[in-house]
Amino acid sequence: MTGNMRNLDDGNSATSANQNAGDELHSSSQARLNILWLKVGGLWPLNTGGRLRSFYLLQALSRWHNVTVVTTHGPADDPEGLKAQLANCRKLHSIPYCPAKKNSARFLFALARSLLSTLPVDLYKNRIPAVKKIVSQLLDSDAYDICIADFLVAMPNLPQQLDIPLLFFEHNVEYMIWQRLEKVQSRVLTRVLLALEWRKMRRYELRCCRRAGMTLAVSKDDQALLSEGAPQGDIVSIATGVDVDYFQPDRTVVELPAEIVFTGSMDWHPNEDAMLYFIDAIWPRILREVPEAATTMVGRNPSRKLRDAADAVGIRLTGTVVDVRPYIAKAAVYVVPLRVGGGTRLKIYEALAMGKAVVSTTIGAEGLPLVDGNHIAIADDPETFAATTVNLIRNQAARESLALNGRELVVQQYSWERVGADFEGYIRELLAREASIRRGRRDCPVTSVPQ
Questions:
Q1: Domain-located, residue 278
Q2: In angstroms, rounded to a whole number, what is the distance separating the alpha carbons of residues 296 and 316?
Q3: N or C: which end of the chain has fewer CB within 10 A?
Q4: Residues 6+ apart with CB under 8 A from 167
Q5: How far is Cα 166 from Cα 237, in angstroms, rounded to an integer?
Q6: Which residues does the annotated region (Disordered) include (predicted)?
Q7: What pLDDT is attached to residue 412?
């Protein structure tokens, strides 16, 4: 997902049709559950992939169950808009919080303090007493069937002891992101700090997988990696979804044969690294073969470093946009040159749903069930990435073949409604197992949450 300000009103009729399809997958004969969902880092507007995944699953679950959401919002977020969009939720508490920005005094203070803590700085700086307090109050005052910790950063904000089942929704293998960042860094001090960070992150992350009743990864690859590190945990996986009615081919927009596009939040380290890598190592090779080529990078909060690098080579950098679809629609090729990352890239499914040919690194397409040469083109070194992109620019038939196959795959198998029904199935599975354990004990099992 990208730094666009998503407006769901653009597709009300399609959304209603999707909801009806999702309701058919859900068993209405089962009792409604009381679900407490904790998501630190905001939910609205939908300008990141994580927000999009969480939002659509909440939208589905809140039609079928009694869902209480606790989240946070920053200065650019819209908590009232979120309440309107998740009107089916039983309660929604959004707490103002702005995490320390990199290199700010607050961040450097948190970094120094975290060196004395078992928590990595990325989690240490997101411990929010107000969130922990309201979660504890809700657990004391209401009877919940299950608690869902959305992203690893939610875990330090839960009470240390939970007497209801805990489902840990793991969008990324977080430590892997930091480990990969270390590998592409050139500065010695930065590499030393990142090495410490990813090792602390790994220890904490795997503890959480062991302690949760179930950990839900977003790909088979992530599931295998977490299971290897935490064999005692119950770790399963769920597919990534896409709104196939919102993201669809736009025949009113003329595709420009030499136009390349990337979409993504530019304030996320892996995306910035990918764009700097593209500018430095891939873009010059493309220009040598296709001098008329143009690239647009779409997404929120690009750094000064990235803006300067893009300006120097004539690449357009938009910042936040209202809607990414026109930018994707006019492009011939969608690129994902990621060298760092975890989880799955929703941006690829969005591009495929819009009928675009996608060129990605293996890491960029990691965890997605896509076949190289059929749904997507995979290229891992600058020469191959540039050559593959140039070939697709020149070969309309090859572009259209990838686009057709990719669109067909996501429409048939990866709508959010189907993913939501699968998510509910895992909730039911965890509750059934915990109920069986409870019947064998006098007291309800207690989950100890790593702090």
A1: yes
A2: 5
A3: C
A4: 146, 147, 148, 149, 212, 213, 214, 215, 216, 426, 427, 430
A5: 16
A6: 1-24
A7: 87
Is 280 found in the same domain as 219? no
Per-residue pLDDT tens digits for 366-405: 888 899 999 999 999 999 999 999 999 999 999 999 999 9
The count of other CB atoms within 10 Å of the CB of residue 339 is 18
Identify the residue whose tokens are 């076949």: 371
Closest CA to 81 of 99, 90, 94: 94
d(CA 18, CA 244) in angstroms, rounded, equals 9
pLDDT value at 11 more than 50: no
pLDDT band at 29 (very low <50, low <70, confident <90, very high): low
pLDDT digits (tens, 9 = 90+) for 200-249: 999 999 999 999 999 999 989 899 999 999 999 999 999 889 998 999 99
C-alpha 224, offset from chain centre: 18
- Residue 102: pLDDT above 90? no
**Looking at residue 53, what is its pLDDT?**
92
Q: Are residues 72 and 177 in the same domain?
A: yes
Assess whether 419 and 371 both reside in one domain: no
Q: What is the pLDDT of residue 13?
A: 37
Structure tokens at 153: 């950063």
Burial class, 156, CB count within 10 angstroms (exposed 0-12 / middle 13-18 / buried 19+): buried
Report the number of distinct structural domains present in the chain: 2
Please list the residues that pair with 170 across neighbouring strands: 217
Phi-psi category of residue 392: left, alpha or beta, with phi > 0 → left and psi -120 to 50 → alpha? alpha
The two three-digit tokens of residue 272, written as one number: 């910035």
Same domain (yes/no): 402, 439:
no
Residues 51 and 189 in one domain: yes
- Model pTM? 0.78
Q: Which range marks the domain in which residue 367 is found?
A: 256-413
